[in-house]
Amino acid sequence: MQPPLVLFDLDNTLVDRRGTLAGWAAGFTAQYGLEDEDQANVLDMVAERAYPSTFEAIRTQYRLPVSTAELWHTYCTDIAALVSCQAGVLNGLEELRAAGWRVGVATNGAADIQRAKLRATGISERVDGVFVSEEADARKPQTRHFALAAARCGTVLGDSGWMVGDNPVNDIGGGRSAGLRTIWIGNGRSWPPDDPGPDHVVPHARAAIDLLLLHSVDYTRTAA
Ligand SMILES: [Mg+2]
């Protein structure tokens, strides 16, 4: 029997991306002498899509005296320094693996920044595998994204797989289409009423981990 698999989204699931970006945007606009309204605009642009092309647009709009490559590199370094993962969540990833789970990260985004965050927070060394969409041009909610993430964990998508994330379409809809059971991280929101619901709703990642640890008892029984 193959080990149960759980894939976690990264941003606003394992780490607080919104809070990290707000702090970064404040520092960035202070560094370049930009106004408050510019800070809000820069934050919106990066929150929407953080790739080198985003920084090309920011550099042009604000006539910044540095190269796009330098802006992108500094962004990756700064964000890695600011981001953190709660100790209870880091410990939880280890508890899941000790209970026999294969644990992976399935995230959309640019490989540079997502991998920098995973290393800086200590998540990298506590999971079996990571897949970042840019690495094979396969974004959630495509099933191929989840299949590649499972492969990075040395396994395949199957009946005993789970997806945990905060995005109703990418994580929950995509996870369900890929044949996974789903846990939605509400982050204080309520589920969009028109969408078919996830299997479980929890307030934060640690609660999702506790739920999975309860399920691992079932898997152990099934295997026995
Ligand atoms: Mg997310």
TrEMBL record:
Gene Ontology terms for molecular function: hydrolase activity
One GO-annotated biological process of the protein: small molecule metabolic process
TM spans (from-to): none
Domain of life assignment: Bacteria
Keyword list, A-Z: Hydrolase, Magnesium
Name the record gives this protein: HAD family hydrolase
Record's signal peptide: none
Known cofactor(s): Mg(2+)
InterPro entries tied to this protein: HAD-like_hydrolase (IPR051400), HAD-like_sf (IPR036412), HAD-SF_hydro_IA (IPR006439), HAD_2 (IPR041492), HAD_sf (IPR023214)
